[in-house]
Amino acid sequence: MADHNIVVIGASYAGLGTAHYLLKHTIPALEKASSNAPKYKLTLISATTHFYHKVGAPRFLASPDLIPLTKAFLPIEDGFKGYDADHFQLVTGQAKAVDEIKRTIDVRYLWVRQPKDNHIFDTNLWHIPGSHEKTIAALEATQSALPAAKTGLIAGGGPAGTESAGEIATLFPQAEITLLSGADRLLTRLRPAIGATAESKLSAMGVETVHDLRADSTAKVGSQTTVQLSDGTSRTVDVYINATGIRPNTGFLPRSWLTEKNYVITRDKTSLRGPVDGVYAIGDVAGYSLGGALDIVDAVRPLCSTIFADLAGSNAGNVKPQPFNQTVTETQLVPIGPSGGVGSVFGWRVPSFVVWLIKSRDYMIGTAPGTVNGDRFVKA
Predict the structure, then answer these.
(1) Cα separations (Å) of 92 from 44, 49, 106, 119, 337?
(2) Secondary structure (DSSP) of 82-127
């Protein structure tokens, strides 16, 4: 039996990467740090049995033919078969409450109470809570509705909404697609000129972009959806897609651990320590995150080095935590259809073919198995 439990809540990109790195590198190093070092066990809590490569959601929802959903949903358990049961446990369930005093996490679905000493939080987006079958069913419902759709409304002018508009307009040019940016332009994390280029490309594909207008609520009316808009009007459309962004799944956490916008507090952005000792945050749920992929990829090693330092204490020797250096320069790639798109990398605007080469051609579906298996973190 382990002397010390480490719990990772969430099995998306950040949770999987952190779990693998801890198991491959941090826990072995901790157990070798001294002759009387405690034994460690990592528990990964996931609300679903399958990892979802949600980066490709705009293409998945547009067509079942371009990328099979069997490549988008991969069993999480398969990626952790190489670890022994003394060091790893997968719990399929939804975290419902954290007791800071008793140091326990209540998990619904399997009805287990998981003790914890340290825990790390990750979150999902473009994902329906519960089993992966629910997400697949929602994607398939949209796929089925699009061929006959005459009208479509997409709420959200970030990458997800812009990409979805491009995918749908490419495959179904007969449909009248409207994209609500919800702001004064598209892609507000990129310079205005890039957002304008994206809008121009979508316009050439027949997509109407409307700014400064948001979707407030929706209601199903037969096979259609009526959308109430922020200006008091409404629209009834054949297909409605909500791509309005991230809402942190933190309702089960103590309120004192959260920011005003319900993200997990990170006391020190370079170490990623959370609101209280023994709590850490990584990914879209963390207060430090700007929502980009680099805020996950670049944070895994620094986070795990901090955990090692905190747990090893005086036994850490000369090993110092690796600081997290956040990328704040403009970096985002946004496909607009399968042939290219717009974007910038470390402040350099890139041509359309670079977007195609990196993301647009297959939405990086080839990286999904490696995410589940931890291939990115084979080396410390």
Answers:
(1) 8, 6, 12, 16, 35
(2) TS-TTTEEEEESEEEEEETTTTEEEEETTTEEEE-SEEEE---SS-
Separation of alpha carbons 96 and 247, rounded Å? 16
Q: What's the residue count for the chain?
A: 380
Distance separating alpha carbons of residues 297 and 77, to the nearest angstrom: 21
* 176-180 sheet: strands from edge to edge: 208-210, 176-180, 151-155, 239-242
What are the tens digits of pLDDT across the range 19-73? 999 999 999 999 998 888 899 999 999 989 999 999 999 999 999 999 999 999 9
What 8-state DSSP symbol labels residue 258? B
The distance between the two most distant Cα atoms of the chain, rounded to a whole number of Å, is 70
Lay out the sheet containing 348-349: strands in order across.
Answer: 332-335, 341-345, 348-349
Cα-Cα-Cα-Cα dihedral sign, residues 292, 294, 295, 296: positive
Bridge partners (DSSP) of residue 332 are 344
pLDDT, one tens digit per residue, over 107-153 is 876 434 455 566 554 433 355 666 788 889 889 999 999 999 999 99
**Look-up: residue for tokens 């975290």?**
95
> Which letter does DSSP use for residue 19 in this model?
H
Structure tokens at 242: 């909500």
Gap between the Cα atoms of 11 and 92, Å rounded: 10
8 Å CB contact between 23 and 126: no
3-state secondary structure of 349: strand
